Structure formats: C-alpha cells, structure tokens
Amino acid sequence: MIENSDVWSKTIPTTSMSSGNIEFLREKWSYWFDSLDVNHDGKITKADVDFTLKQFPVVEGLNKKVGKLADDQIEKWWNTYILRGKHEISKGEFLDDFQKEYAEKKLISLPQLNHYLNT
C-alpha cells in the first residue's frame, strides 16, 4: 500500500479505451452484477435489495439498532450506485451504464478508479 495519501487524491488522465480494456472491465462488471443479483433471475431488483437488507444484520451479528443504521446505508448505496432510480436493471443495462459512465470521464481520480474496479 502506498503511504503517501497525496498520491491517491491525484487525478490521472484516462487513456483511450481499447477493445481489450473495455472487454476486461465489462467482464469484471459482469461478475459484480452476478454477485448483486442475489436471486439469480438475470436482473437486479428491489427483491435483491430486500434480501441483502434482511441478511446483512444477521450475518454480521448486529443488534437491532445498529442493523437498522446499516440497512439505511446499504439501501442508499443500492439506490445510488446500482439501481440509480430504476425499479430493476438487466445485466446489459448495468454493463452499458458502467461503460457509458467510464467513457464519459475525461479525468478520474485514483480513489474513484479503485472504487469502481475493486468493489
């Protein structure tokens, strides 16, 4: 791990997307989609969110109060970064949305890149 936090706040120019780069990213995003589609019906819906919200406090051994706080944050994350105001999203839409967002970024910070590629 690089110790200098200044390095992580710098922005780096993105290079042009070669077909190999975007294929790699789409494959990685595809695996992520598969893990988020917890009921494996080929789309991410409120049912996937609800299952996660129900299971997370149990799996993590959280008490009711802490579990509720975690649920609120998890639901916000799902709605902000995954569903993005939609009721459901297919794998194709998910991959296209992430590719479009990736292509629109002229500069991307290392923390953002790390967030998108390692979550």
Automatic annotation (TrEMBL):
MF-aspect GO terms: calcium ion binding
Entry keyword set: Calcium
Keyword Calcium among record annotations: yes
PROSITE patterns, per database record: EF_HAND_1 (PS00018), EF_HAND_2 (PS50222)
Domain EF-hand intervals: 24-59
Keyword Calcium: yes
Positions in coiled-coil regions: none
Name of the protein described by the UniProt record: EF-hand domain-containing protein
Species the sequence originates in: Mytilus galloprovincialis (Mediterranean mussel)
